[in-house]
């Protein structure tokens, strides 16, 4: 079974976080939702006031292996993700081991670009943050960008969260599995 880490914090975009978690679980992926709050609180308040209960705190995840690490966007959630030393270590390990990692909305710019991880990489993010993707090959139009060579998936925002989540399923489990998850959700374009 594939194992995925989804990092969240106060101010994470709830539509993105819940969509990612839900779609991956529909695909029978083992999803670990980790809070990146410095207070170690597992209950986070998302960007629109929705409460989300994490499974664990990120510090308990550092010695685990993941097939994919995913960062929802939202502010100041993405800032908390950027500032999380345990998450930074996990992401560095993913990158060094050529393992999949993904970010949507503000997170490609606020987390990945600020760590200097996007040089030469194909990426996108929330439109008003696209100029902050320093060194990246920015696709301003694509809803989802999959960079196979760098094992990175990025997306633009809440409206692209479902396509993003299905792209995650596809890279982990194949196109047929992504379609089998999309079909009962009545997604005709998948």
TrEMBL record:
Entry-linked Pfam families:
DJ-1_PfpI
> What's in the keyword line of the UniProt record?
Repeat
Question: According to the entry, what is the taxonomic lineage of the organism?
Answer: Bacteria, Pseudomonadati, Pseudomonadota, Gammaproteobacteria, Oceanospirillales
Q: Does the keyword Thylakoid apply?
A: no
Which GO cellular component term is one of those annotated?
Answer: cytoplasm
Extract the InterPro entries matched here: Class_I_gatase-like, DJ-1, DJ-1/PfpI, Prot/Nucl_acid_deglycase
Q: Which organism is it from?
A: Spartinivicinus marinus
Which superkingdom heads the taxonomic lineage of this protein's source?
Answer: Bacteria
Extract one GO BP annotation from the record. glyoxal metabolic process
Tell me the protein's name: DJ-1/PfpI family protein
Outline the extent of the DJ-1/PfpI domain: 2-170
